[in-house]
Amino acid sequence: MINGDPTTPIVIPLTDVYASQKGELSWQDKKLLLTCDPHQYHFSAAAQFQLAGISERSRRIEVALTVLSGRIAVGWYVRDAHEFAVKESAGRGKHIVDLIVPAGTRGGQLIFQNEAASASRVLIEAIAILPNRPAA
User: Which residues does 121 contact at the CB level (< 8 Å), separation at least 6?
Assistant: First the structure.
């Protein structure tokens, strides 16, 4: 669990990511290779950490990844509510997934979910909690 000032960027160590269901993790050049559970919409990996200040303001989580095959969803899953507070999907290629977790969200964890009909493969490069962007 990581705490911190909501205005200070926090890097989440990739070692905090763990496989779930039939997902598999391995290291590839300081990046985490996720081979997803082959079942569509099954959770394949997760990371649990605290979002400082979430009771008062939304928090931004940024995940840098490369989808090598298939399609992945990344989201903040609230187990007690049995739903995602926020979730984004990505197909093949390099992506920065930007998740804005709503203020007042209680608990939760970062989830990597397979969205393909077979085992997606994803390189997870970085995870960070960043300050919210100023309103335009």
Answer: 33, 34, 35, 36, 67, 68, 69, 70
**pLDDT single digits (tens) 111-128:** 999 999 999 999 999 999
**Cα atoms in the 13 Å half-sphere on the side-chain side of 17:** 27
Q: 0.70 exceeded by the pTM?
A: yes
Both structure tokens of 47: 């990371």
- Spatial contact of 127 and 74, defined as CB atoms under 8 Å apart: no
Q: Where are the domains of the chain?
A: 11-129
| Burial readout 105-122 (b: 16 or more C-beta within 10 A, e: otherwise) | beebbbbbbbbbeebbbb
- Chain-centroid distance, C-alpha 101: 11
Phi, psi of 108 (to 5 degrees): 120, 175
Instruction: Tell me the fold of 11-129.
Output: Jelly Rolls (2.60.120)
3-state secondary structure of 112: strand
User: What is the amino acid identity at position 25?
Assistant: L
